[in-house]
Each structure stands twice: as structure tokens, then as C-alpha cells.
Specification:
By secondary structure, the chain is mostly beta strands. The protein folds into 3 domains: about 1-20 and about 435-490, no CATH class; about 25-45 and about 330-420, no CATH class; about 45-315 and about 420-430, Neuraminidase, CATH 2.120.10. Helix content is about 10%, strand content about 40%. A hairpin with a 5-residue loop joins strand 2 and strand 3 (about 65-70). The radius of gyration is 24 Å and the shape is globular.
């Protein structure tokens, strides 16, 4: 009788522990552990017009957002770093923010990348009275400009014959920095890239003196996203004018900057997605080598989220959506897809801005690996979330290791714009699959599952957790590493190795 009561007590303890785990929030809900219980953060950086454009997650969980701000007269690069809970990190810059002027010109930061040594690379465009150029800055982990990079931490590079703007940045394993964007070359804009040495000097082994200019469409091509393949090839995505309208377009380059003739037609791919203008804004590489591009497409009288997935050779992947393409209305009006992230479970998250009740709000959609909306996320796979007092524009996304989704952009505060962030519950590859079946054998037993959880809750680790337990032959988790991984990733527990 004592053993029966002991078993019941243990099961009740397990139920209590699991009930205490953070399982009340559903995938797509705002994360109330972020932003003082609201799931949202709004930050004033400059004197006006603060636009968050890019986001990166540090290994320690801190969040860095980059963009541009008016600081007096000119637009300038600006950054903010946040603690895991959304509070500004006062060890960064001045009270958690940094503003960097580029001489007397306007500097607009569009992209960010983190080096393995903790330094922060920010890229964009710098404008003077006649044109714009690629520009980038590198910061120490403290937020101070890295004076060992370029001139005082900054680099300005003319690429084409007129206005040049870098919208994307990627770091090679050797430390070289690749920028992609749109450059004026004669009468129109074309895809353009530049590669820099670790010290900020142009890498003359790439393209022509470190630069590549590549027309794809008829006269107006802009690259908005970049990704590096494991083999060193560079994939760039954006939108290209194809006669009377814009289409998704991609280009793949060899490591030396030459177009990869094994991709698409001579190294480029142009894909009409919707019924008229299609704007590719983001790109992600799957582990199997497939390429996912996302953006917004005109579908009749309004814009919707749209995606396309390509085989490694540039052909559309017919196993994704309809013929490799997806068009998803998120709101009842206009929707702009701007950023993409791939989950470890193969699901695809796209973030952007969607027409809400009276203005634009942050919005997200999550898709299964085959392109179908993931109905476990938000409402039918979609989330629309107002952040500020009026119009909110989401332009960046990052995926935390625990499955939570952080998005960043700019939000109207009534008179101008501020940086803003929101964090959403991720699941189901986070803690949303937490059940009492700890060993994964399909049943819950006091002699296995309850005992495992009781031991870990008492601080036991390693072989001490599984000693003396007889697992079913079909149990999927019979070792401490597998059990620990399940309790951390699926149940939100914090456990020692």
C-alpha cells in the first residue's frame, strides 16, 4: 500500500512540475517574459525617425538591432543591444545605444552580421549631395568603433556609376565580408556586390578590384538578400524588372565573383510569382541545399506574402506549394513579407508588415516544409500583432535556440518612428511538445517517466538519472543526453550537463 501511495505522490509531483513549466502560451503568442510582460519593446535612439532594419543574436542571448536614425540633421547608423529579457544592455555604447555619423552625409544601415570574435559589422548606404555609395562600419563588442577597420572603423566604397546601396551582408568563414545591393549603372539599377578583407580593404581577388556588377532583368534590379553556401558560392536574391513588371530573381556566384553557369540560365533565375509585381526581400538556405526566397507579390488589387523554393540548380522545386510557389494573404488587405528564418524542424517563418485595423502591424506566417501553412501557429498559421500606437513596420527576424521568434522594425510613436521589437512563442520545436512521456515509449509510468523527472528535479544528472530504470525496447529516449535534450527543448527546463 505504501508503494502505491508513493507512486501516486510521485505522479502528482510530476504533474505539478509540468504544470509549472511555461506551457500556457501557444505558438505565435507574444512572449510575456520579454519587454516587461508585454512581449514588446519600443526604443527611442536619435532625435527622430529611428528605423530598425536588421537583427542579430549573440551567442550569450543578447539581441543587436541596427538601422538608421535622424540625429539632428542627417540620418546616421544606429544600433541598440538588448538583454535576453528585452531591457537595454547598458554595457553597450551609451545606455545600450550607439549612433555613428558618416562625415556630413546621410548613412542608412540596412544589414548586420556578427563576427565570431564578437565584433559587429553593419552595412548600408551613405549619401552625399550627388550620389550614394556602399558603406560599412565595424564595432567592438562594447559598441565602440573598431579603429583597426577601414578609416576609424568605417568604409565607404563607390561601386557603380551613380547611386549604390548595400542591403545585405554575409561573413565568410575566412573573415571576409560580402555586401550585396543595387547600383546605378547607366540608365538603370543592377545587382552589385563587393567583398572586403578583414581590415576593410576591398578584396581584389573578387570580381574586378573587389566589385561585381551584374544586370539580370531589363533595367531595374536590386539585391535585397544574401546567403553563403557551404561550398563558398554566394547566392543573392531580390527583384528584377522583366519588361513591364518586377519578378523574383536570384543569382549565384563562384567564390571569385564570377556567375555560376550551373545555376539557372548563366547563373541567374527570374521567376514571376503573382499576377503582377513580385518583390523578393529575403533568402534562406536549407540544409539539403534548396533555396527559399520570400517577399511580397501583387495578387490582383493587393500585395500578399509570397515564397518560392528552388532546387540547388535554380529550378523551382515542384514539391513546394504549387509548382514551387506560394502566395499567402495574411490580412484582408495589403501584406508585405520582409524577412525569413528556417527552424531546425524544417518549418519556415516569414515576417513582415500587414494591414491591421487602422494601420500596418507586425505579422508572421509559419509554413510546413511542403509549403502548407502550419495551423499550430497563431490563427491558421498566421499572426498579426500591433506594437506601437499606429503604423508598425517589421523588417527583420531572428530565431532563438529555444524556438522563440524575435522580430524587429520601426513603430510609429505618434509623431515619428522608434526602434521596436517583439518576441513570439515558437514551438512546437520549443517546449510546446512537452508531455509526461519522458522516455518516449507512448505511455506514462511511475517506474520510468515519473522517476526520471523526479531525479532531474532533485538536481541529479548523467547516469544517476537513468540508473536502475528498465526502458521499453521501443522507447525513443533511453540515454541521459536524449532525456536532457527533451526536457530542455520541449519542456523549457534548465538542466546541468
Amino acid at each position: 500500500m505504501r508503494n502505491i501511495f508513493s507512486g501516486i505522490s510521485t505522479i502528482l509531483a510530476v504533474c505539478t512540475l509540468l504544470a509549472a513549466a511555461p506551457t500556457s502560451a501557444a505558438p505565435g503568442d507574444l512572449d510575456i517574459t520579454f519587454g516587461a510582460g508585454s512581449g514588446k519593446v519600443i526604443t527611442t535612439i536619435g532625435t527622430s525617425q529611428d528605423r530598425g532594419r536588421a537583427i542579430a543574436l549573440q551567442p550569450d542571448g543578447k539581441i543587436v538591432v541596427a538601422g538608421y536614425c535622424v540625429n539632428g540633421i542627417n540620418y546616421e547608423f544606429c544600433l541598440a543591444r538588448y538583454q535576453f529579457n528585452g531591457a537595454l544592455d547598458t554595457d553597450f555604447g551609451s545606455g545600450g545605444t550607439v549612433i555613428s555619423p558618416f562625415d556630413s552625409s546621410d548613412g542608412l544601415a540596412w544589414a548586420i552580421a556578427l563576427q565570431p570574435d564578437g565584433k559587429i559589422v553593419v552595412a548600408g548606404a551613405c549619401y552625399n549631395s550627388t550620389n550614394g555609395d556602399f558603406c560599412l562600419a565595424r564595432y567592438q563588442a562594447s559598441g565602440a568603433l573598431d579603429t583597426g577597420f577601414g578609416s576609424g572603423g568605417k568604409v565607404i566604397s563607390p561601386i557603380g556609376s551613380g547611386h549604390d546601396a548595400a542591403y545585405a551582408v554575409a561573413l565568410q568563414p575566412d573573415g571576409k565580408i560580402v555586401l550585396a545591393g543595387g547600383c546605378r549603372n547607366g540608365s538603370g539599377y543592377v545587382f552589385c556586390l563587393a567583398r572586403y578583407q578583414v581590415n576593410g580593404a576591398l578584396d581584389t581577388s573578387f570580381g574586378s578590384d573587389g566589385k561585381v556588377i551584374n544586370p539580370n532583368g531589363s533595367d531595374d534590379d536590386r539585391a535585397w538578400a544574401i546567403a553563403l553556401q557551404p561550398d563558398g558560392k554566394i547566392v543573392v536574391a531580390g527583384s528584377c524588372k522583366n519588361g513591364s513588371n518586377f519578378d523574383f530573381c536570384l543569382a549565384r556566384y563562384q567564390a571569385n565573383g564570377a556567375l555560376d553557369s550551373g545555376f539557372g540560365s548563366g547563373g541567374t533565375v527570374i521567376s514571376p510569382i503573382g499576377s503582377y509585381n513580385d518583390f523578393g526581400q529575403a533568402i534562406a538556405l536549407q540544409p539539403d541545399g534548396k533555396i527559399v526566397a520570400a517577399g511580397s507579390c501583387e495578387n490582383g488589387s493587393k500585395n500578399d506574402f509570397c515564397l518560392a523554393r528552388y532546387q540547388a540548380n535554380g529550378a523551382l522545386d515542384s514539391g513546394f506549394g504549387s509548382g514551387g510557389k506560394i502566395i499567402s494573404p495574411i490580412s484582408s488587405s495589403t501584406d508585405f513579407g520582409a524577412a525569413i528564418a528556417l527552424q531546425p524542424d524544417g518549418k519556415i517563418v516569414v515576417a513582415g508588415s500587414c494591414a491591421g485595423v487602422s494601420s500596418y502591424d507586425f505579422c508572421l506566417a509559419r509554413y510546413q516544409a511542403n509549403g502548407a501553412l502550419d495551423t499550430s501557429f497563431g490563427s491558421g498559421g498566421k499572426v498579426i500583432s500591433p506594437i506601437g500606437s499606429s503604423t508598425d513596420y517589421d523588417g527583420a527576424i531572428a530565431l532563438q535556440p529555444d524556438g522563440k521568434i524575435v522580430v524587429a522594425g520601426s513603430c510609429d510613436n505618434g509623431s515619428d518612428y522608434d526602434f521596436c521589437l517583439a518576441r513570439f512563442e515558437g514551438g512546437p520545436f520549443g517546449y510546446r511538445n512537452c508531455t509526461m512521456d519522458i522516455d518516449g515509449d507512448g505511455v506514462v509510468l511511475a517506474t520510468t517517466d515519473a522517476l526520471l523527472l523526479a531525479r532531474t528535479s532533485l538536481g541529479m544528472t548523467g547516469s544517476a538519472v537513468i540508473n536502475g530504470i528498465s526502458f521499453a525496447s521501443h522507447a525513443t529516449r533511453k540515454t541521459w543526453p536524449d532525456i536532457r535534450n527533451y526536457l530542455i527543448t520541449q519542456c523549457g527546463m534548465t538542466l546541468a550537463p
